[in-house]
Amino acid sequence: MPCIWCTVYSTCIVGIIGDDLEAVCRKVTEQKGIPVIPVQSEGFKGNKRSGYKAACNAMFRLIGTGDTTGISKHSINILGDFNLAGEIWMVREYFRRMGVEVVANITGDGRIDDIRRAHGAALNVVQCSGATMDLANMMEEKYGTPSIRVSYFGIEDMSEALYDVARFFKDPEMMARTSELIQEEVRKIQPELQKYKKALTGKKAAIYVGGSFKAFSLVKAFRLIGMDVVMVGSQTGTKEDYEELAEITDPGTIIVDDSNPLELTSFLMEKEVDVFVGGVKERPIAYKLGVGFCDHNHERKEALAGFAGMLNFAREVYSSVMSPVWKFVPRKTAAFQRLNVSALER
């Protein structure tokens, strides 16, 4: 009996430990009449980057197997968006309004038949470069498909992503539609955004996320609502990434790489932050310190991409920082000092 994945998506991506994984997949392909794709990651070997590479290699085997008839010359693939809280639908709508056809989403809300014909798109738009840049590079090498790196988080980066796509196609009408779209979307959120900025100006923020590209966008987003980023870091950043972070942050900002909980705790105490943005593993650190926390992980339920997402982010930060619950927490400085002593004793 085929698995749920096979039944729903008419394909199967499997990992089998054995002497001839390719032969096993070929046999099952014949039996089931659907593509069965080997993932070369025996025992989940390697690190996170190795997993990304194995996934891209597997996905690439699908690309190029579909019919590209009828694809517009103004067409893209969206790579590295995982459709958290429906974000990819929002982004696709922006591109539709610009006059751009989205051929395939990889991987959020993806469709196998779309991925098969992804090589017919004119451009790959890569958001999570750590996860899908290898796939974009493979497509460029084999099919000549160029790629650009973008971020959909924050007004500045979302606008730049749309403009970058419009500039690629060199279509004056598309550029005009893009400009009109951005102005319209910013006008919608600007009045409420200013209210949050007035209350949050001068507050301190700390950032620790998986990918450095996400950190860049967060720094800009906090600046937009008047907050100072006093610590920023990621788990998978490169030397070049951290050099760029140093350029866009203020002097004295702590920049960390693949930090552990004790180090993060120490930096949060030192900077006396008002809000900490991280993933699910960082949440307990913030709450133990009496610091507001905003979830930027894959488990979140609130859309943060796009223009509406920026407003959601500002609203969440405001609610976290200005919550009346903090009046029940001891004075921050004194609490940090006690926690610091406790940490040293341990």
Task: Please render the helix and strand layout as text.
Elements lengths: L3 H6 L2 E3 L6 H12 L3 E3 L9 H13 L14 E7 L5 H12 L2 E7 L4 H5 L6 E4 L2 H15 L3 E3 L5 H15 L2 H29 L3 E6 L2 H13 L3 E7 L4 H10 L5 E4 L3 H11 L3 E4 L4 H6 L3 E4 L10 H16 L10 H14 L1
Parallel strand pairs: 1-2, 3-4, 3-5, 5-6, 7-8, 7-10, 8-9, 10-11
Helix pairs in contact: 3-6, 7-8, 8-13, 9-10, 11-14
Task: Describe what this molecule looks like in 3D.
There is one protein chain. This protein is α/β, with parallel strands linked by helices and about 350 residues long. The chain has three domains: about 5-40, no CATH class; about 75-180, Nitrogenase molybdenum iron protein domain (Rossmann fold); about 190-345, Rossmann fold (3-Layer(aba) Sandwich). It is built from 14 helices and eleven strands. The strands form three sheets. A five-stranded parallel sheet has the order 9-8-7-10-11, sandwiched between helices. A four-stranded parallel sheet has the order 4-3-5-6, sandwiched between helices. Helix 2 links the parallel strand 1 (about 10-15) and strand 2 (about 35-40). The protein is globular, with a radius of gyration of 22 Å.
